[in-house]
Amino acid sequence: MIKILGIDPGSINTGYGIIESKGNHNKHIKNGIIKVKGNTLGEKLKIINTNVIKIIEEFQPDEIAIEKVFMHRNADSALKLGQARGAAITACAMNDLPLFEYSANQVKQACVGKGHASKEQVQHMIKILLCLEKKPLTDAADALAIALCHANSRESLIRMQGVNGIKYGRLQ
Fold first, then answer.
1. Of the listed 8, 20, 63, 142, which one is catalytic?
2. Catalytic site residue 96?
3. What is the pLDDT along the chain (172 residues), one digit of tens a residue?
4. Euclidean distance between CA atoms 14 and 127, whole angstroms
5. Which one is catalytic: 43, 67, 96, 133?
6. Would you call 62 a catalytic residue per the annotation?
7. 52 and which of 23, 91, 106, 143 could share a cystine (Cβ 3.0–4.6 Å)?
8. Which listed residue (20, 63, 139, 142) is catalytic?
9. 8 assigned to active site
10. Whole-angstrom distance, CA of residue 155 vs CA of residue 58
11. How distant, in Å, are the alpha carbons of 50, 64, 96, 123 from that of 29?
């Protein structure tokens, strides 16, 4: 079993989700939201970094998956998202954990089957795929979807290694 931490970074809420994965079997461990409250940018980034470090220390993930920054219409939002990602990525780097990045479309495609799925569709599929009693909060569902996307991609990459002799990160 490999433990994967999925992170959905945000400047207001940062979602996290932890799963255990072996082959095609995935098990929910924990999910939640880091409430990013602070008066300054520095305070907010510290909250994200500190809490991601605590989650890593508590759950000891083997690999981390995080959503890539995308730019829709608002450059300021993309900048804030990038800063939140940086705080989370720094926490992972400080713990020498391998980090994998996925676009929102890749995550939605992996979990829902279509790259432009709604937040509600992601929540619904995460509830089904991980056999949860209730739908997780939106940001936590997104983080679990990121972890599942990595679990699915990881298995494909490992199978490809056997066929093509491809070396990919620390997978094996």
1. 8
2. no
3. 899 999 999 889 999 999 999 988 999 999 999 999 988 999 999 999 999 999 999 999 999 999 987 666 777 777 888 889 999 999 999 999 999 999 988 999 888 887 788 888 899 999 999 999 999 999 999 999 999 999 988 867 667 665 444 444 444 4
4. 19
5. 67
6. no
7. 91
8. 139
9. yes
10. 25
11. 20, 14, 22, 16
